[in-house]
């Protein structure tokens, strides 16, 4: 059986720009970094194809992400500064009668017309059959067509 995983992350450019403004104001110009592409998979990808979203990260951890050597080396940066950033981002989005948040929502372009269309898309990717067959000769046969 093969079931669809998370959608690719679709960071909203207007929300990215707002986050950058906050970082510039709080920590100084040039401290904001946005990776235009990531092969990582997360449920935030599913959220981001339906509503404006970003997947922000804070500095302060070292080691391999999800690895046994991963730990928080700088808790102030990773936790306290991260929390301050999140609160300030919310303040910026909601100030002036939430004008920035309203602008971001109004200008967001989802690849789907509705949640139902998104759910139909996800369901269409599922296959209730053996997709990968391991052959006795060591080869693999893929049956990925619906």
Detailed description of the structure:
A hairpin with a 5-residue loop joins strand 3 (132-134) and strand 4 (140-142). Helix 1 (13-27) packs across helix 3. A two-stranded antiparallel sheet has the order 1-2. The protein is built from four helices and four strands, in the order H-H-E-E-H-H-E-E. The mean pLDDT is 90. Helix content is 44%, strand content 7%. The protein is flat, with a radius of gyration of 20 Å. It is mainly α.
Question: Secondary structure elements and their pairing?
Answer:
Layout: H1 13-27, H2 43-48, E1 61-62, E2 71-72, H3 75-106, H4 115-125, E3 132-134, E4 140-142
Antiparallel strand pairs: 1-2, 3-4
Helix pairs in contact: 1-3
What is this structure, in a nutshell?
This protein has 146 residues and is mainly alpha-helical. The protein has helices at 13-27, 43-48, 75-106, 115-125; strands spanning 61-62, 71-72, 132-134, 140-142.
């Amino acid at each position: 059986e093969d079931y669809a995983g998370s959608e690719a992350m679709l960071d909203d450019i207007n929300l990215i720009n707002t986050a950058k403004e906050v970082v510039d104001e709080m920590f100084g110009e040039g401290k904001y970094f946005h990776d235009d592409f990531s092969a990582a998979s997360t449920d935030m990808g599913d959220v981001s194809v339906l509503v404006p979203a970003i997947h922000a990260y804070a500095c302060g951890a070292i080691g391999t992400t999800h690895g046994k050597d991963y730990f928080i080396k700088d808790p102030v940066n990773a936790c306290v500064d991260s929390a301050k950033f999140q609160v300030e981002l919310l303040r910026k989005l909601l100030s002036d009668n939430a004008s920035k948040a309203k602008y971001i929502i109004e200008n967001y372009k989802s690849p789907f017309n509705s949640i139902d269309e998104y759910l139909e898309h996800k369901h269409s990717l599922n296959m209730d059959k053996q997709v990968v067959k391991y052959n006795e000769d060591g080869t693999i046969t893929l049956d990925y067509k619906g």
